[in-house]
Amino acid sequence: MTAKEILQLISEKGIEMVDFRIVDVPGRQHHVTVPACEVDEDMLEKGVAFDGSSIQGFRSIEESDMVMRPDLTTAYVDAFTAHPTLDLVCDVYDPQGVRYERDPRFVAQKAEAFLKQSGIATDSFFGPELEFFLFDDVRFDSSPQGSFYAIDSSEANWNTGKDEGPNLAYKVKQKGGYFPVQPTDSQHDIRTEMVMELMRAGIRVERHHHEVATAGQAEINFRFNTLTATADTTMLYKYIIRNVARKYGKVATFMPKPLFGDNGSGMHVHQSLFNGDTPLFYEEGSYGNLSQTALYYIGGILHHAPAILAFSNPSTNSFKRLVPGYEAPVNLVFSKGNRSAAVRVPVAAVTPKACRIEFRTPDCTANPYVAFAAMLMAGLDGIRNKIDPTELGYGPVDKNIYELSGEEKLNIRSVPGSLGEVLAALEADHEFLLEGGVFTKDFIQNWIDLKRTTELEPMNLRPHPLEFQLYLDL
């Protein structure tokens, strides 16, 4: 859309406010709102000033002036504001009009540009599957003298004996939440309203269903798209899910492991490359109908996986999910059917254009712009350097990994077990990310420093309630 078309849309829809939005380095959205009567072509083209020192991971206070300039193709009439509001996703610039290198959206756009320049393909397509929980109550605190968290859900198996006046039973059993119908699936109508709002926002939704865990785990899948467009959709998706949940008096969380003893929430990411209209991952009759290009792409993903996880699983909570069991994709292998493999090859009802690989390890604490970019750069490195996953011992493995003999398991590598380990892996292995200037050394070091100082170190300093059970009497 042009600036004139945006102004026409504002007039036609009776828009009263225009919301300018950016994404910080960890992946949270921020916004500034301008009365629609103050918005003109000049503002839509030149953007809105803001204080970059107040945005996590951006600039320090002595160089804080920055500009957010809207991408007019992202216009969305907000469904959750009392006054008609138009939302616009923005790119970040410095005052001289130069793109800001720590803007996550810029990293995604540079990755797409590098793909075209490489001559390997013209387009990369990404299709994330976001899982989340819908809770009725979430309470937590962390202070010098104590800490706790408490969650609750009317669906939870621990509420079978609760006096709910009356208790209507049909609670979801532990690990029993996959595909039950109503009344066990009590959140069907909420998810349907989420789907309707997503579609009204222009997002093509493919399906929704209850997920495996008790206590309201859900999944809503949307159609794949190109890298940056999919990251934009992921941010809008989260915004809509959270606000519809709030409308129903519930809280939506994309935390990987908010619930002990049951399945966590992941973000399986389907990926493919095209050259124009030609799919590059398909070769009929080969393993999983995968081309050699696709196999090299898998090789790059698995070879660089420990470093990728610093972006795709960038929280301490991520590694509460990435443990053996619970269908956790912790094994650095590829497979046609094994859901504990880091890379799965979908084979059901696959056409040449639908042929793809699925990286199952990521979760929704990832900033989608940088996580998708890191995956693409790893895959491209695999193609450019002909990294053969089979030669490196990454499979294929189509047996149940948990039933393998001890000797067979010795040959299967696992993902790192903590945020600290993947940050160290990123420090040791990031040259593939620097190709074409997609990531910069500054962005990577800033990411590592931010994660260590604001997440890892504070977590390591605090006593855990379980430690009192384990050690109080020693």
UniProtKB/TrEMBL annotation:
PROSITE patterns with a match to the protein in the record: GLNA_1, GLNA_ATP, GS_BETA_GRASP, GS_CATALYTIC
Subcellular localization(s) per the UniProt record: Cytoplasm
Catalysed reaction equations from the record: L-glutamate + NH4(+) + ATP = L-glutamine + ADP + phosphate + H(+)
Entry GO MF terms: glutamine synthetase activity
InterPro entries: Gln_synt_N, Gln_synt_N_sf, Gln_synth/guanido_kin_cat_dom, Gln_synth_cat_dom, Gln_synth_gly_rich_site, Gln_synth_I, Gln_synth_N_conserv_site
EC number(s) on file: 6.3.1.2
Classification via SUPFAM superfamilies: Glutamine synthetase, N-terminal domain, Glutamine synthetase/guanido kinase
Residues in GS beta-grasp domain copies: 13-97
Pfam family, one: Gln-synt_C
Chief localisation class: cytoplasm
Annotated GS catalytic domain residues: 104-474
Keyword ATP-binding applies: yes
Keyword tags: ATP-binding, Cytoplasm, Ligase, Nucleotide-binding
EC main group: ligase
Family, per entry: Belongs to the glutamine synthetase family.
Annotated protein name in UniProt: Glutamine synthetase
Source organism: Fodinisporobacter ferrooxydans
Organismal lineage: Bacteria, Bacillati, Bacillota, Bacilli, Bacillales
